[in-house]
């Protein structure tokens, strides 16, 4: 059937008594190939919203002055003929075909616009960004994947969950941290904030490695370090080999033996490291989705937020970072995975007597505080007090959307191995 015939069959099936409730969620007037069919569908929706079943009389009345232009009552009668609407039970199938046709037309329109832009552009990268946006817009147009749930069904789902085992979420390498934050959850944005060289990249790499060892696919967007630098740190932490020896190519025989043993396992990790600098949200989204197709995706790591390229460099920096923060939160929900994003802190803590950071030290945007589900702020006393020999990395839980805040988890910072290890006692066999 051609698009016009499909639309006639669909509208005829509705006028002949097909239930409306299952048809109103996605289909919109603009999805119809014939404008008059879109107008008729709008009239049907108006009748349905008033609590009535669409019939020829009510739909013609809802069309009002548009009725004559769109064929009038006689056209509605024609739509209900046996030849046009053979079975009301096929209404959902016809609706799906209408949506499929609308998507095809939007993709053709997007392709035309992309070609026109490519023929006149002087900035191919900008055109590629526009192309991604146009394709995403075409594919997402009119879709409502989260239509909600009734109170009754939601209560049932919640009670069933309460009766089952506790969902531990995605664990970190530190069980004492997991106990406070209940693990990382799909759709959450986790911000790890620190001044330069305190250890936020070490924690991000440790979290990524732990997720891979648990069988979760990880996309690691390294906007600061090269992919070689990321892997050097992963090898150092997992093989317990000096990072300086790896970077300086000064491995001892024992080092080589340790690296060889661990490298075989690391080769099998579902990890993808992308060190493209100045990535935009659209690029990050596209590449994370590609990783999801390659290996599956359980975690997205961004190192670090302020190095991402803004959508518009002309707007104030605070607004740029705010849009990036909001975009990462939306991306976490869209992909259904936790997003761990590192963030640089300003010099506010350096100017206070107590050098420990607070949330207001997050550089350039208070929006990060609102968007994040977790905010962990890092502090090392040996970075501000040359006499300190504690070797501790303090992880302060400044925000915890579903739990208590204000706790500090103390980790042993082993920078020479590019790792942080829990200082809390754990039962034998637990991962510290």
Quick structural overview:
With 432 residues, the chain is of the alpha/beta class.
Low-pLDDT parts are: 428-432
Head-to-tail CA distance between termini: 63 Å
CATH class of the largest domain: Alpha Beta
Q: Determine Rg (CA atoms, Å).
A: 28 Å
Residue-averaged pLDDT = 82
Order of helices and strands: HHHHHHHHHEHEHHHEHEHEHEHEEE
Category by helix and strand content: alpha/beta
| Percentage of residues in DSSP E strands | 5-15%
What is the number of E strands?
9
Number of domains: 2
Shape: elongated
What is the second-level CATH architecture of the largest domain? 3-Layer(aba) Sandwich
The main β sheet shows up as: 9 strands, mixed
Going by CATH, the homologous superfamily of the largest domain would be: P-loop containing nucleotide triphosphate hydrolases
Please name the CATH topology of the largest domain. Rossmann fold
Helix content: 40-55%
Strand order of the largest sheet: 3-2-4-5-1-6-7-8-9
